[in-house]
Amino acid sequence: MKLNGIALYGFYNGFDYKVSIMEGLNSDKFSAKSAIRDARQKGYKANANKLLYSARVDYTSIPGFKIGVSFTYNKSNGKASEIPVNIFELHATMNKNNFIAAAEYGAISFENYEVKNSSGYYVDLGYDLGTALNQDIKVIPFIRYSDLNTASSTKSGGNSEKQYHLTQWKMGLSLLPIDQVVFKIDCGQDTIELNNVRTNSFNLGAGYYF
Known about the structure:
This protein has 210 residues and is mainly beta. The protein has one helix and eleven strands, in the order βββββββαββββ. The protein has one domain (5-208): Porin (Beta Barrel). The chain has one helix at residues 129-132, and strands spanning 5-12, 15-22, 52-59, 65-77, 82-96, 99-110, 115-127, 138-154, 165-178, 181-192, 197-208. An eleven-stranded antiparallel β-sheet has the order 1-2-3-4-5-6-7-8-9-10-11.
């Protein structure tokens, strides 16, 4: 039997906390385009020679509000590399008087690697029309702005810090017949800083919360 990780979590004096130890990242799969995304390991195939340590704390005692922060460290390694990473993340949500808002900022710092930093943030704003009209179904028009750069700081500098810098505007509608099910439709525009390349998008989706 293989264990992918262990966590300690709880609630104390208005704060919700969680501390985790799990298998680390495969540094051979880091890239300027996707940062650490492709370096995540897959369950029973995971190499746990270098463990990942993560801590998160949220303040939740104000009704309708939550704000929190997390920090993660991993001396990640692969067959051909060893690249320590630090991940910092700050998040906040609000759900009050039918107004819904969420924001998050994250930053990754790399040691001994061409990419020195990755960073990004998003802000969501929405309003629940269904609840405001005393309907059982939630109808939430929303708008989102995102700014993401998987190579925000590099040793090379110049265009290498612009080619993966993405900004995005998106607007759409979420329908929740029950709290665990959502149907979404949205449209938006993505812009890459290098050469100001723009792409329009249209999406339909469904989700289940469990």
